[in-house]
Write a structure and sequence with these properties.
With about 30 residues, the chain is mostly helical. The chain has one helix spanning about 5-25. The chain is built from one helix and no strands. The mean pLDDT is about 90.
Amino acid sequence: MTAENITGLVVAVSLLGHLVLALLCPERF
């Protein structure tokens, strides 16, 4: 895997995790 692939994967996972957290704990956001 290239550095660009790893960076894109990390960004996508963090965005998905943030969306899931916002859905599970809306009082935080």
